Amino acid sequence: MAGLESFDMDYQRHRPSRSISEHPFEPQHDVLSTDIIRQQQRNTLLEISKKRDKSVNDSVNKCLKPTCLILQHVVSYPFIVLRRQCQLHYASVRYHIVPFSLIPVVFRLVKSQGISVLWKGFGTVLLIKGVTMAVEAILSEIFDLPKDADSINNSKSFGKHIILKCVSLSIITPFYSACLVETVQSNIASEKTAVYDVFKEGFIRLLQWNCPQKGRMLPVWIIVVPTVIYGVFKCITNILVSKSVKHMLTMYEIHKIRKVCPKSIEYSPSYSDNERLEAVSDLTASAVGDAVLFPLEIIMHRLYLQGTRTIIDNLDTGISVMPILTGYVGPLDCLVTTVEKEGRLGLFKGFGALILQTALIGMLYKFVKITLVKVVDSYSTELQSSSVNTQNNLNNQMSTPEQSRMELADIRPIMRSTSFMM
C-alpha cells in the first residue's frame, strides 16, 4: 500500500506495552479515598445529630418538671375553687357532673365578681401546704420516718410512711378546715380575712381537741377521721398510679428507641428523663386520686364547714349566694343523708370541674412541650450549622456540587430518624 512501505511491522509487533502502574495518575485510589472521607463525614454528621438531640431532650426535660408543678398547683386552682363550692352546695339543683353546664355559670360568676373570684384563698392554700411539708419534715427527723415515697423500700418503711402521714394530717386538720373557709366563702357576702386568721382559727380548734360540740360545729377528733382516711388513700393511690405510669412511659420510650434503632438492647433513662417521667406520672396520679376519692372529699369538706357560718356563691345561677346550714353528726351520717336527699349522684357534685381541670392541664402540657422542643431545637440547629457547613466545604472539595447535594439529602433523613423525641 502506498505510504506504508517504510512502516516497521516487526517493531510494532514486538514493542513493549506500558503497564497501568507506569502512569503518574491513579484514579482508582483517588475514588477509594473519596468514599472513605464521605463515610467519615456521614458518621460525623450522625454523631452531631445524636448529640444535638440529646441536648434538646435534656433541656426540654429540665423545663418540663417546673412546668408540671405550675400546672398542678397554680393553673388547676380555679377549678379546685369551683369544685369545692359545688361539693358544699347541698341544696343545688344542678350537680355539674359534666363540664358543659358549669361553663355558663362560671362566665356569669366572673362577670359579676371579677376574675379574682377564682383565686380566693390561693395564698393561704400555698401557706398551709408549706406548713404541712414542714410538719412532715420535723416528724421525719424526730422519729426517723421516711418522708418521701422514693425512700420506701419494703413493707416496714411503707408502714412508717403511712404513720407519718396519719400524724401530720391529724395535726394539720384544723388548719385545713380554716383554709377551706377562705377558699369557698363568697367575696360579696363575707368580710376579708388576714393571713394570720387561718392560724388563729386553726390553733383554737386544735386546742379544743376534746371539747364537746358547740352548736353545729363538730369537734376536731370527728373531722380528723375522714381527713386521715382520705389522706392515706390519696397517698397509696398516688404511689401505685405514679409507679405504674412511670413504668409504662419507660416501656414506651424503649419501644420508640427500638423502632428507630433495632440494635438497641439496653436503655437506661438519664437524670433529666427521670425528672420528666416523674413529673408526668405525678400529674396523672393526682388526677386519678382526685377522681377515685371524689365522694370521700365531699364528705370531708362538708364536715369541715359545718357550724362555721360560711356563705358561698350559688353555682346554680352564678349571681347569688347561700349559707351553709347543715347538721351532720359524723361522717357516716353525712354519707347517708347525702345519698337520701341528693341521690347517689350527689356524691359527685362538681365532677365537671375536675374534668375541665384535667383536660386543660393535659392540653397545656402538650402545648408547652411542643413549644419547648421547637424553640430548643431551632436554637440547637443554629449552633450545629457551623459544623455542618465545615463538613460540606470539605465534601465540596472532593466532589461536584450535584454529588454534595445528593449526599446531604441522603443524610438528613437519617439525622432526623435518630432524634429521640418525647
TrEMBL record:
Q: Which GO terms describe its cellular component?
A: mitochondrial outer membrane
Question: Which Pfam families does the record match to this protein?
Answer: Mito_carr (PF00153)
Q: According to Swiss-Prot or TrEMBL, what is its membrane topology?
A: Multi-pass membrane protein
For the biological process aspect of GO, one term held by this record is: mitochondrial membrane fission
Q: Supply the alphabetized keyword list.
A: Membrane, Mitochondrion, Mitochondrion outer membrane, Repeat, Transmembrane, Transmembrane helix, Transport
| Localization per Swiss-Prot or TrEMBL | Mitochondrion outer membrane
**Which ranges does the record mark as transmembrane?**
218-241
Query: Which stretches of sequence are listed as region Disordered?
Result: 1-25
Q: Does the keyword Transport apply?
A: yes
The ranges of the Solcar repeats are 273-375
Highest rank taxon of the organism? Eukaryota
The family note in this entry says: Belongs to the mitochondrial carrier (TC 2.A.29) family.
* PANTHER family linked to this entry: MITOCHONDRIAL OUTER MEMBRANE PROTEIN SLC25A46, TB1 PROTEIN-RELATED
Its name, as the record gives it, is Solute carrier family 25 member 46-like isoform X2
